[in-house]
């Protein structure tokens, strides 16, 4: 059976922690930042963790060797 291919767009967007959780960068921090409060911008800098239901799908289908 051939190797499974990694979805390259997913490999750029997601990474796995050592415990197997799926980490991603939060949206809304690219441009037009003047209308956002400093607190909101500070919270968006932190990495997000996918819910377990979504993480299972990402690990199985998009990052099979992650």
Automatic annotation (TrEMBL):
Single GO term (MF): structural constituent of ribosome
Superkingdom of source: Bacteria
GO cellular component, one term: cytosolic large ribosomal subunit
Keywords for the protein's UniProt record, in alphabetical order: Ribonucleoprotein, Ribosomal protein
Record family assignment: Belongs to the bacterial ribosomal protein bL35 family.
Stored NCBIfam families: rpmI_bact
Name of the featured protein: Large ribosomal subunit protein bL35
Organism: Treponema parvum
């Amino acid at each position: 059976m051939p190797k499974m291919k990694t979805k390259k767009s997913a490999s750029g967007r997601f990474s796995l922690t050592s415990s197997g959780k799926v980490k991603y960068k939060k949206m809304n921090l690219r441009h037009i930042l003047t209308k956002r409060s400093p607190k909101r911008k500070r919270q968006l800098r932190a990495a997000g963790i996918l819910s377990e239901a979504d993480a299972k799908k990402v690990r199985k289908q998009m990052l099979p060797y992650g």
